[in-house]
Amino acid sequence: MDDKQPKPQQLSLELNPQTTKVSYSNLAIISHSRSEFVLDFASTLPGLPKAVVGDRIIMTPEHAKRLMNALFDNISKYEAQFGVIDLGGKGPQGGATFNLADFGPMGGGSKS
Fold first, then answer.
1. Choice among 3-12, 50-59, 99-108 with the minimum mean pLDDT
2. Are 75 and 66 in contact (CB under 8 A)?
């Protein structure tokens, strides 16, 4: 009896420069419900009071965890090749992350 495991299927991607959207983000805001993770990718510029969301990605919790694992794997490979990424700051997160709940209700403007 042959117990060969099926080979993982290869996925081919096409990046067409005329139709592929490229975005830059230096800020990501992540929220979730029981059934979805929402990732808002934004960019903020020095001197401007607002960050502009350029892309919103909505995914299932399973896909969010796959993305986390893929990022962890790629960051580990990057650091093995180029050295540890310094986040600056102090503490386990390097001061590079924050929780929106720490800032109170979020809205379009300030309340007086």
1. 99-108
2. no
